[in-house]
Amino acid sequence: MPELPEVEVTARSLRSVITGHCIEAFRCFDRRLRQPVPAGLSKTLAGRRVVEVRRRAKYLLLDCDAGGHKSGGTLILHLGMSGSLRLFPPGVALPPRRKHDHLEFLFDHGALVRYHDPRRFGLCVWAPATDETPPLLAELGPEPLDDAFQAESLRQALHGRTAPIKNALMDARVVVGVGNIYASEALFRAGIRPATPACRLGLVRVARLVDAVRATLEDAIAAGGSSLRDYAKTDGSDGWFQNDCFVYGRAGEPCRRCGAPIQQLRQAGRATFYCKRCQR
DNA sequence: CCGACAACCTGTGAGC
DNA sequence: TGCTCACAGGTTGTCG
Description:
Distance between the termini: 28 Å
Number of strands: 10
Shape: globular
Number of helices: 7
CATH architecture of the largest domain: Alpha-Beta Barrel
Order of helices and strands: HEHEEEEEEEHHHHHEE
Oligomer: single chain
CATH class of the largest domain: Alpha Beta
CATH topology of the largest domain: N-terminal domain of MutM-like DNA repair proteins
């Protein structure tokens, strides 16, 4: 599902429409997500104003004010493998709910947000404002698009890790937001074989990887993310990055750079794609 | 601590 | 047409 670019694209489109508006009603049609949607969430959210829409890793965060409750807090959403949000701006006609539309957020100016997730690996929980980072977010590594994501620190994070670099790149304690599509894509751009033991990469290659991860994610955000099966942008349209992929999903097809057939292998149960000529 | 794998769940496409 | 199997963008827990 959605990796960092898809969540970022979703956050941006929500941000412009719901920031500063109050949640008038929250409805839950199926609580069975990765963690159950809390039974009291409707009351918890009612009347609160969304102060800020943020993204951390693949989590979408709606910071809310107290709105008549004791204190503020943050609504934490995750789209899992198959989740997406659909935003209906004020005044547009509402189509009927689809199968797997599990949650609805109605805002005071008439905007409606629907959470859709066939596989129900997603998440919707409330974190009261405290001094502590919510547990779900506490163990997360650096944001790849922040300045803190640097060759030196990544090299340090990979120290002693014998697992393939592709798996290490997908470990949220190393760097957040890089999932199965963009791990293969970033390694192609960096010219690094996905099976290379992570600790064997020198600073020069790690620096290339840092740049490649950034470039891959930024390009994907600009393209509106990747739509393979379930993901859609908040207006229901598809992202386009899947058409720009160098290697993901292209087994047997010619490398866009050198023409050699793209290879596929399986690492830790996940499909990996690479070019054996461009990546060493 | 590290790494590999199963599990969570539904849908889809391939092959028979 | 229909059955079975493999596989799909993530995360977490368990086992070696």
